[in-house]
Amino acid sequence: MMKILVTGWHGFLGFNLTQLLLENSYQVFGASRSCPPRLANYCSHDYFTYISCDISDPRDLKKLPHVDFVVHLAGNTSASASNKSPRFDFEQNLIGTFNLLEWASRGEPTPFILSSTAKIYPLGDNIPRSFYGTSKYAADIYAQEFQSNLSLPLIINRFVTLYGPHQYSFSAPDKSWVNWFIQANLQGKSITLAGNGDQRRDPLYVLDAAHLILKQIKTPEMMNNIFDVGGGVSLVTTPRDVVRKIVYLTKNDFTKTIWRDLRIDEKPTFIADISKLEPYWKPKTGLHSGLASTLQWMRKTVEHYA
After folding, report:
1. How far apart are the C-alpha atoms of 240 and 237, rounded to whole Å?
2. pLDDT tens, 226-277?
């Protein structure tokens, strides 16, 4: 049985991936600083082992077992939080990633999948990208050096915004603006749209992202690649259109919409080029069905945990 280490296993993508791996009979070691009370019984699964581990402390990595694959999803995912606390962001996203890369490179290197972000684009100097985007950019480059200099088998996934069920970081608009819009609609909270709300985006349903990582684990020829990961051109939408679809699904208008100018780090258009992935994987979930599924989960969940 293949053993997979998933850091940040109880996070948004991490939990969806962990469920998928267990459904496919992988042995999963879930590493994180803590285990949320809502998942206390989850650790009794025969194929799951929880490891209390802070990857920003290299001493803690001694707790990690030998595994066949590392999927590194842990870290701060909020640009606004990173701007308020850049040191925490640096420690979690860069130092933590470096420590884990170093750990995976010792002895016989362990294949490694890194969750990066489209927030690093455009590449180059003097580009405003927030402390979050900067920390992820640096981690991305460090990972490439471990691959080229220490022969670490590596995949880097540069994800766009994900949305879908099992994101419990409520009241955090920049962690998934799509999920935030649904939550705000259900709870009668105001939302903020930037510019004219017509920025072109391709948000990706989180289970499609999880299935991509499963495919990468099972497909050796995908190794040693950097992939842009999103819905692609077939799933392009805009924040304004997402708002319209949510209103259609809930039959409730938003309480209040606040308008602001685009921030300097916000791009009018960003669509992931998924052409390198298409021989192996394509997103299967359209926006309407993805929103409907997320809404169904959130109606059952948000009031209890928010």
Report:
1. 8
2. 999 999 999 999 999 999 999 999 999 999 999 999 888 788 999 999 999 9
Residue 96: the pLDDT is: 95
Task: Tell me the DSSP string of 211-238.
Answer: HHHHHHHH-GGG-SEEEEES--GGG-B-
pTM score above 0.70: yes
Separation between Cα atoms, residue 197 and residue 240, nearest integer Å: 5
Rg (CA), the chain: 19
Which residues of the chain fall short of a pLDDT of 50?
Answer: none
- Number of folded domains in the chain? 2
Q: Are residues 133 and 10 in the same domain?
A: yes
Q: Looking at the structure, do residues 110 and 183 belong to the same domain, yes or no?
A: no
Q: Specify if 225 maps to a domain.
A: no
- Rounded Cα distance between 7 and 115, Å, is 10
> Phi and psi of 296, rounded to 5°?
-60, -45
Q: Is residue 288 part of a domain?
A: yes
Query: Within this chain, do residues 103 and 155 fall inside the same structural domain, yes or no?
Result: yes
Sign, CA torsion 174/177/180/181: positive
Domain range holding 152? 1-159
Same domain as 186, residue 154: no
**What is the per-residue pLDDT for 30?**
96
Residue 106: C-alpha distances to residues 4, 69, 100, 111 (Å):
17, 14, 10, 12
Mark whether 184 and 261 lie in a shared domain: yes
User: What is the spatial distance between Cα 60 and Cα 51, in angstroms, rounded to a whole number?
Assistant: 10
44 and 137 fall within a common domain = yes
On whether residue 43 sits in a domain, the answer given is yes
3-state secondary structure of 55: coil
For residues 189 and 173, the answer to whether their CB atoms sit within 8 Å is no
From CA 256, how far away is CA 254, in angstroms rounded? 6
